[in-house]
Amino acid sequence: MARVLFVAPRPSSFIALDRALLAERHEVIDLYGDRPQRNPRALGRAVRRADVVFGWWAHLHTLEPFTLARPLGTPTALIVGGFDVANLPEISYGSQRGGWRTIVSRWVMRRADVLATNAHYSARELERNVGIPADRVTVIHHGVPDPFGADPVPDPDRLALTIGNVDTVNLERKGLRPFVAAAALLPDVRFEVVGRQLDGAADALRALAGPNVALTGFLAQDALEARLRRAAVYVQPSQHEGFGVSVAEAMLAGAIPVVTPAGALPEVVGDTGVVVASAAAEPLAAGIADALAAGPERRRAARERVLREFSVDARRRGLLDLVDRALRSR
After folding, report:
1. How far apart are CA 178 and CA 284, in angstroms?
2. Roughly what angle, to the nearest 10 degrees, separates helices 176-183 and 201-208?
3. Cα–Cα distance between 94 and 195 in angstroms, integer?
4. Distance, CA of 232 to chain centre
5. Per-residue confidence at 68, pLDDT binned at 50, 70, 90?
């Protein structure tokens, strides 16, 4: 058993899963927060007492722990992928666009003794945007728990779902605007946007939406799972994704994924989904119509792909091996 200082901005579902998997073997001490710690002396003691500093994402919250770890002799393991390795100036997204975020993220990544990403796409992006060779990076796909435990329902609703916070950035980055625009081309299909409404973006979507579109707001987990179970199609028309956990969760429920070729989305859906050429309304609507025509075999194949390729057991093995390699690095 090692003492793992677990550094992350917040315990989102997939971060909480990683913490729980590490805690099966190791003593895990949480260090959550978006910003640097206010008490550097206490942080120094925590880093010195740890056997490994384990970080999620290269940003301000990992800057101080990883900077302190090297002179204190504490090995480090880091998972990156998403905003911290991206460079998309056209949508003002990514730490690698220059400025202080680039400096901070590269400083943290280059101090990691072992480095991992959640997708092969992110490993290539890391090499392209940061200059860290892909052979220095371990790909450990997300593990996606299965709350359904059964084959998809044979007669799903003509319902297309997308999940994401409804804010100005996600109108384009997550493709919420083209998703709603596509609904006008499929008036006999119900479209639902599930997620917290954080700013005036919801009003912009309502102004665009027809009668077959609903903005549900946040849904509790039970209600969300019930919605996924009934949906025929899950849509993720993003301009960047480091993985796409919501896509995989929907596939477990049996929804056919319709995605753009952005980031790791094709890596997640494989040949079980529909990859559209762009997030424009017309190709998106055509992709959704294709997915609606899918039979139960294809929905079962989507579910089985996630069970096979993105299991919690595989994630557990990958994370524990990452910590073991960090311990051996010093």
Report:
1. 8
2. 20
3. 22
4. 22
5. very high
User: For residue 330, what pLDDT band results from cuts at 50, 70 and 90?
Assistant: confident
Tell me phi and psi for residue 256, to 5 degrees: -80, 125
Task: Say how many C-beta atoms besides its own lie within 10 A of residue 32's C-beta.
Answer: 14
Joined tokens for residue 165: 């916070």
Contact 54, 309 (CB under 8 A): no
Which domains does the chain possess? Answer: 3-143+311-328 (3.40.50.2000), 157-309 (3.40.50.2000)
Cβ 137 vs Cβ 81: under 8 Å: no
Give CA angle at 270 (268, 273), nearest 5°: 95
How far apart are alpha carbons 113 and 28 in whole angstroms? Answer: 19
DSSP string, 43-54: HHHHHHH-SEEE
- Looking at residue 177, the DSSP 8-state letter turns out to be H
Which amino acid is located at 80 in the chain? V
Structure tokens at 222: 């039970």
Q: How many CA atoms lie within 13 A of 319 on its CB side?
A: 29
Q: How many CB atoms lie within 10 A of CB 24?
A: 10
Q: Is 126 exposed, middle or buried (0-12, 13-18, 19+ CB in 10 A)?
A: buried
Contact, 323 vs 26, CB < 8 A? yes
pTM of model > 0.70: yes
Task: Give the helix/strand (H/E) hosting 19.
Answer: helix 13-23
